[in-house]
Design brief:
The protein is mainly beta and about 400 residues long. About 5% of the residues lie in helices and about 55% in strands. It has a 14-stranded antiparallel barrel with strand order 1-3-4-6-7-8-9-12-13-16-17-18-19-21. About 45% of the residues are buried.
Length: about 400
């Protein structure tokens, strides 16, 4: 029987919710300042570092916000000069958090966010249709947390991470003129912890760690569609053309160091350094129940080399208080892609990217309203993936808009 090789290059993005890159949209105020983390003004600090809860000036703090994220990717075959562009819908990540101090030195909180999730849609008949036609994924992070303040300048916090997600992926199987859809739910567990320092009233220091999370898809459904009924029996499938699959994706750890310095009572500067341990992600295994679509001795098992590498992000932001009610913010950061041109995948494209950000904030007694925007300038990539037989040049553009609300009643 002739085997079909199902490329699992896409499943990386399916289950990691990031496609090899981290989408930094977990706080509107933070995004306006390049998504820096050492800001303990309200509950939005909880996602970045649970220890920061101890330095929030309010006993109770509630925040919520959302973003509109638009991106477009263009691929050009340099031999034929044919160019293909994605038609992606607007992404809408959201977040919410609440913190409370039941005791003077003890803080508890909860953070909900959708840190990774988007849709990428290529034309059905484009040259990379066997890798992806459409990929839609969503993720949900639930983080209960606690923080203890040892003294006026030091706190330690920790969180438990429960992650859930869904994916829906379409790709072509040109060998039989058909199509494959992968539909699954995945979940995983992890933890985070951090230290938050305020050695001087002018200086905040945040050091945080987020652990690896193994996202497990145990009951995924693979649906094959072919014009000829004989193909189903060839693959050992029933008339419905469905099969089950399992997979485990190791998500990587993240280290963050953040600083905020108050140059004057009205002006502050912030900087962050993020380190992502993507080298942990070297391959991905997809195990089908029946269909012989793999590339191993067991024909139901498909293994895809990923060859990711560790990556870094450097951020710099600033805020200026025009009045006690109006704040202006600016920022810029550089985000490094976690894989080389030789490992580029169109399902979850990643680029070395410069991003500029800005926004304004308004305070009305206990209420706060923040708006922010970001414009990304990804650097073009010379695609040279020999494993997938994928060559050419890839370019992208992206921008983000966000609205956030905060309430510090007492």
């Amino acid at each position: 029987m002739k085997k079909i090789l199902v490329s699992t290059a896409l499943l990386a993005g399916v289950l990691s919710y990031a496609g090899g890159f981290r989408v930094s949209l977990q706080g509107v105020k933070q995004l306006a300042m390049a998504h820096t983390s050492a800001h303990a003004e309200d509950a939005s600090v909880a996602f970045f570092n649970p220890a920061g809860m101890s330095f929030i000036p309010s006993k109770l703090s509630i925040v919520a916000g959302g973003f509109g994220a638009s991106n477009k990717v263009t691929f050009q075959n340099l031999n034929t000069l044919q160019s293909t562009e994605t038609d992606n819908p607007l992404g809408t990540p959201i977040y919410a958090a609440i913190t409370y101090k039941p005791l003077e030195k003890l803080s508890v909180g909860f953070s909900f966010s959708t840190p990774f999730g988007s849709t990428i849609e290529w034309p059905n008949d484009w040259e990379g249709k066997e890798m992806v036609q459409k990929l839609e994924l969503k993720s949900y992070y639930f983080q209960p947390m606690v923080s203890y303040k040892f003294n006026d300048w030091l706190a330690f916090g920790a969180s438990y991470i429960y992650a859930r997600g869904t994916v829906n992926w379409d790709k072509a199987i040109t060998q039989f003129g058909g199509q494959l859809n992968l539909d699954s739910k995945a979940s995983g567990h992890g933890y985070g912890f951090g230290f938050y320092f305020r050695p001087d009233p002018k200086l905040d220091v945040s050091i945080a760690y987020r652990s690896p999370v193994d996202m497990k898809a145990k009951d995924g459904t693979a649906t094959f569609k072919f014009p000829s009924q004989s193909v189903y029996s060839l693959l050992g499938l029933g008339a419905s053309g469905t099969d089950n699959f399992t997979a485990t994706l190791p998500l990587v750890e993240e280290y963050t160091i953040g600083l905020t310095y108050k140059v004057t009572p009205k002006w502050l500067l912030s900087a962050d350094f993020n380190y992502h341990g993507w080298s942990r992600y070297s391959k991905l295994t997809l195990d089908f129940a029946t269909a012989p679509v793999g590339n191993q001795a067991d024909p139901t098992v498909s293994v895809s080399p990923k060859n990711f590498r560790n990556s870094k992000t450097v951020r710099l932001g600033t805020q200026y208080a025009f009045t006690n009610m109006i704040y202006g913010r600016l920022g810029a950061y550089y985000d490094e892609a976690p894989y080389s041109d030789e490992n580029f995948i169109p399902e979850t494209p990643s680029f070395n990217t410069f991003v500029v950000t800005g926004g304004v904030g308004f305070k009305l007694k206990q209420f706060g309203v923040d708006v922010a925007g970001g414009y990304a300038m990804p650097q073009a990539r010379d695609v040279n993936n020999k494993t997938l037989g994928f060559y050419g040049q890839a370019k992208a553009t992206a921008f983000y808009l966000g609205l956030g609300l905060s309430y510090n009643p007492f």
